[in-house]
Write a structure and sequence with these properties.
26 strands; alpha/beta; six-stranded mixed β-sheet; five-stranded parallel β-sheet; Immunoglobulin-like; binds alpha-D-glucopyranose; about 20% strand
C-alpha cells in the first residue's frame, strides 16, 4: 500500500515539475526530496529545521544520539575535523534517513590564512581577487570539515559608527553586488568538489541602517531606498546561485526581518523565485519577543515559519512549538514540508548525500605558501594612499634608519581584525617583523603605546628618541580588533586613547612622518592627516599585513586601493554618502560660512539658508572612490557613442587614461551618472561601472563602458521604471571628480 501511495506521490510530483519547467536532473532531485520527506515523521522534519551550536546536546555521545534521532539538521561552531567527520558518518550511516548535516562557521575573511576585513577587500575594487581569496578560505575550511559559511555579508552601510561596517563592502550597491557575487563564487566553487562550501547572503535585509550605528537597532528604510540600494547585492547573490540566505536581527519598518513576510516571501520567493534555504540569525526568531513582535516562543515560531525562515539558528522556538502549532491547525504540515524541502535541496545541491565525508580532512592546505601569497597581494591592494606630500613615499630600502613606532606596529592579533574564529595571531607577520627583516638594525622600533586605547605616556620618551635617531618615522596607529565588529559600535570615531598626542610629539621632531592606520572603520583622522606627510589606510589587513605594507612603503608596488565608503570629518556628519540627494537648497563651498568666521555681532537670521554644517561645511573628509598612487593619471578625451539613448538601447562611453608620472601603477577608473529629473528625487551621482587598469609610465589606455538603458532603471515607489530625461555622466578617479558629459534618454 505504502509503495502505491509513494508511486502516486512521485507521479504527481513529476506532473507538477514538468509544469514548472524543471530540468530532468532537477526533477529527479525534487522527486528524491519529496520521497524522503514522505518517509519522515513530523519530529524528524522539525529536527531538520534546527541548527544547534556545538555542545548543545551535551558531550559527543549525546550529540551522536541526537543525530541518530533526527533532532538536528545543522551545527555551527563545531571544531575538530575528525569530530565533524564522525558526526557526518553517524548522520549518513546510523540515522533513519541518512540525511547529512551542514556544518556552519563564520569564515568571513579567511579561515586560518586571514585576508583583509571585507571593507578592506572592497577597497581593492578587484572582485576576481576576492573570489580567489574566498576560494582559498573554502579550501582551508572544508579541509577541517566545514561545508557552510555564514558569508558574504552584503549589508550596505554608510555609518562608520556601526562596528559591522568592517564586514561590509561599504556604501555602494553596485560595488557591494560585484563583491557579493565574487565571494559567493569563491566559497561555493564547483559544488561537486569536496572543497565546496555553501555561501550565505546575509543579513537579509537592511541591517546596515541600524539607527545611530548602534548594533541591532531599529531600521526605517523606505521601499525605494530598500530596492534601489539594500536589496541589490542580495538579488545579485541570488542570481549567482548563493545556496543560503540569513535573515537578520533588525526591525525593518516595524517588522523584524526574521519574521518579515514582505522580504522573506514576497520579495525573496515570489519576486525572485529563490529556491535556496533561509536560516535565521543567532536566536533572531526568539528575539522577536524582545522586539515586542511576538508574545512568546510559540508565536515567534508561528510568525517566522509562516514568513519563510527554514532553519532556526541556536534558539528552539521551532523545536519546542511547531508540532503543537500543527496540532492546533495554526500551520499545516505542508508548510513544514516546504521548509524541509528547501533544506534538503541545499544538502543535495552540495552533493552531501553522496560526498565522502572524510576524504579531505587534511591540514596540508592550511597556511599554504600559495595562500599567504594571495593574502599578501589582496592586503596590498586593499590599502588606500590618502596623502603623499612631496612624494614622501615610497622610501628607499637603503634608508640610513627608519623609526617604526606605534601600538599597531607589532599587534599580531589586532592586524587580523574582527570575526576571527580560526585565524591565529601567531601566524601573522607584523610590520615590525617585516621591516626588521628588511632593515635589520637600521630599524628603530618603539611601540610608544602598549595598545590603541592606552592612556599612559610612559612610552613616549623612548618613541621620540627612536624618531630623533631616524631619517623618517612610520607610525602605526588605529584600532584594536575588538573595537570593531558585531555589537562594537563607537559613537566617537576618532583614534582611540592618546595616539593623536603621540603623533603630535613625533611631528615635533621634524622628521618625515608617515601614518599607517589599521582600523575596522573609516576614522575621523582629519587632524592626524594634517600632521602627517603621508597617510596609508591599511584597514585590518590580515595575516600578511607586515609584508604587504613593506611592499608599498618601499615602493615594490604602488598603492592602488580606493575608498568603498565616504570618510567623514566626524560622527556629526553622519550620514554622508556620495549618492545623496541634492536637496532644495544645495550649498557650494562659496556658500559656507564657517563658525569661526561669523562676526561677533552678527545680526543675521541665518548664515545663508543653504544645506550645510557651519563647522564641517559641505564636504566629507574624503570622498567615496578616493585613493592616490605613486604616479599621476591624466584623464582625457571623453567620448560618448551617442548623445541620445533609447529606453531599450545603450551607449558606449570612453576616455583615455595616461600615466604621466614615473611609477607603474594601477588605476580604478569609475563611471558615474546623474539622472537630473525623476518621478522621485534622484541621487546626485550613482556608480554604474568601474575598471582597474595597470599602466607603466607614459602608457595610455582607452577605457570604455557600455551603459544600457536598463542600468538606469530605478524603483520609484510604484514600480521599476526607466524614465526618459537628461543625464550627466562622468568618467573619473573618484566620486568627486572626472570628465563630464551628458546624454538624453528618449
Ligand atoms: C552572529 C551574526 C551572524 C553570524 C552568526 C553565527 O550573531 O550576526 O553574522 O553568522 O551570529 O555566528
Amino acid at each position: 500500500m505504502k509503495i502505491k501511495i509513494l508511486t502516486s506521490i512521485v507521479g504527481l510530483w513529476l506532473l507538477a515539475s514538468c509544469a514548472a519547467g524543471l530540468s530532468d536532473s532537477q526533477d529527479l532531485q525534487e522527486q528524491k526530496i519529496r520521497q524522503i520527506i514522505s518517509e519522515m515523521t513530523l519530529d524528524e522534519k522539525i529536527g531538520q529545521m534546527q541548527q544547534s551550536n556545538d555542545g548543545f546536546f551535551g558531550d559527543d555521545e549525546a550529540t551522536k544520539q541526537a543525530i541518530r534521532d533526527g533532532k538536528v539538521g545543522s551545527f555551527l561552531n563545531m571544531v575538530g575535523a575528525e569530530r565533524i567527520a564522525e558526526f557526518q558518518r553517524v548522520a549518513l550511516e546510523e540515522s533513519k534517513h541518512g540525511i547529512p548535516l551542514l556544518f556552519g562557521r563564520d569564515v568571513i575573511h579567511g579561515f586560518r590564512t586571514i585576508f583583509p576585513i571585507p571593507l578592506g577587500i572592497a577597497s581593492s575594487w578587484e572582485p576576481d581577487l576576492a573570489q580567489e581569496a574566498m576560494r582559498v578560505s573554502a579550501v582551508e575550511a572544508s579541509s577541517m570539515g566545514i561545508n557552510w559559511t555564514f558569508a558574504p555579508m552584503m549589508d550596505v552601510t554608510w555609518d562608520p559608527r556601526w562596528g559591522r561596517i568592517a564586514e561590509s563592502c561599504g556604501e555602494d550597491p553596485l560595488l557591494a553586488s560585484k563583491f557579493a557575487v565574487a565571494m559567493v563564487k569563491g566559497f561555493q566553487g564547483d559544488l561537486n568538489d569536496p572543497t565546496a562550501v555553501a555561501a550565505c547572503a546575509k543579513h537579509f535585509v537592511g541591517y546596515g541602517m541600524s539607527e545611530a550605528g548602534r548594533d541591532y537597532n531599529t531600521t526605517y528604510i523606505p521601499e525605494p531606498l530598500l530596492r534601489n540600494v539594500h536589496l541589490r547585492p542580495f538579488k545579485a547573490a541570488a542570481d549567482a546561485g548563493v545556496l543560503t540566505f540569513m535573515s537578520a536581527f533588525n526591525d525593518l519598518n516595524g517588522v523584524p526581518t526574521s519574521g518579515n513576510e514582505f522580504t522573506l516571501k514576497h520579495i525573496l520567493r515570489d519576486e525572485w523565485g529563490y529556491k535556496g534555504m533561509v536560516v535565521s540569525d543567532w536566536a533572531s526568531i526568539e528575539e522577536m519577543i524582545a522586539h515586542g513582535f511576538a508574545a512568546d516562543k510559540k508565536q515567534a515560531a508561528e510568525i517566522s515559519v509562516k514568513a519563510g525562515v527554514d532553519m532556526e539558528m541556536a534558539s528552539t522556538c521551532y523545536a519546542d512549538n511547531l508540532k503543537q502549532l500543527i496540532k492546533e491547525g495554526v500551520i499545516s504540515e505542508d508548510l513544514v514540508d516546504n521548509h524541509v524541502a528547501n533544506i534538503l535541496r541545499v544538502k543535495m545541491e552540495m552533493g552531501l548525500f553522496d560526498k565522502p565525508y572524510d576524504n579531505h580532512v587534511s591540514t596540508d592546505t592550511i597556511l599554504a605558501p600559495s595562500h599567504l601569497k594571495v593574502s599578501r597581494e589582496l592586503a596590498r591592494k586593499s590599502m588606500v594612499l590618502l596623502k603623499n606630500n612631496d612624494n614622501t613615499l615610497p622610501i628607499s630600502k637603503n634608508i640610513r634608519s627608519l623609526a617604526v613606532i606605534g601600538p599597531l606596529a607589532d599587534a599580531a592579533r589586532d592586524q587580523l581584525g574582527t570575526w576571527i574564529f580560526d585565524g591565529n595571531g601567531d601566524d601573522s607577520t607584523t610590520p615590525k617583523e617585516a621591516f626588521g627583516e628588511i632593515l635589520g638594525n637600521r630599524m628603530n622600533y618603539s611601540s610608544g603605546l602598549e595598545y590603541s586605547r592606552d592612556k599612559s605616556t610612559k612610552g613616549f620618551a623612548k618613541a621620540i628618541s627612536a624618531a630623533q635617531n631616524s631619517d623618517a618615522i612610520l607610525i602605526f596607529a588605529g584600532e584594536e580588533a575588538i573595537l570593531s565588529g558585531e555589537a562594537n559600535a563607537r559613537g566617537i570615531i576618532d583614534l582611540p586613547g592618546i595616539q593623536t598626542e603621540l603623533i603630535t610629539e613625533l611631528k615635533k621632531t621634524g622628521k618625515p612622518l608617515i601614518l599607517v592606520v589599521m582600523a575596522g572603520r573609516p576614522l575621523g583622522i582629519g587632524a592626524e592627516m594634517d600632521m602627517a606627510d603621508a597617510v596609508l589606510y591599511a584597514w585590518h589587513p590580515g595575516t600578511m599585513a607586515g609584508p604587504a605594507i613593506a611592499d608599498l612603503v618601499f615602493g615594490d608596488f604602488s598603492p592602488s586601493g580606493k575608498l568603498p565608503v565616504t570618510f567623514v570629518k566626524g560622527a556629526g556628519q553622519i550620514p554622508f554618502y556620495y549618492y545623496r540627494k541634492n536637496t532644495g537648497r544645495p550649498a557650494t563651498e562659496n556658500d559656507v560660512v564657517y563658525i569661526d568666521d561669523i562676526p561677533r555681532d552678527s545680526k543675521q537670521l541665518s548664515l545663508g539658508f543653504k544645506s550645510m554644517h557651519i563647522d564641517y561645511g559641505i564636504t566629507p573628509l574624503l570622498p567615496f572612490g578616493y585613493g592616490l598612487s605613486y604616479t599621476e593619471f591624466k584623464y582625457d578625451n571623453l567620448k560618448l557613442s551617442s548623445k541620445e539613448m533609447s529606453t531599450d538601447g545603450a551607449i558606449t562611453l570612453s576616455a583615455d587614461i595616461r600615466n604621466i608620472g614615473n611609477y607603474e601603477a594601477e588605476e580604478i577608473v569609475q563611471l558615474y551618472i546623474h539622472d537630473k529629473v525623476g518621478s522621485i528625487t534622484r541621487p546626485i551621482k550613482e556608480l554604474k561601472g568601474f575598471e582597474k587598469i595597470n599602466l607603466k609610465p607614459g602608457d595610455v589606455k582607452n577605457v570604455s563602458f557600455e551603459l544600457k538603458a536598463e542600468d538606469l532603471q530605478f524603483y520609484n515607489g510604484d514600480d521599476y521604471i526607466i524614465e526618459p530625461g537628461d543625464f550627466e555622466v562622468w568618467i573619473g578617479p573618484n566620486s568627486d571628480e572626472g570628465l563630464k558629459g551628458s546624454f538624453v534618454l528618449k
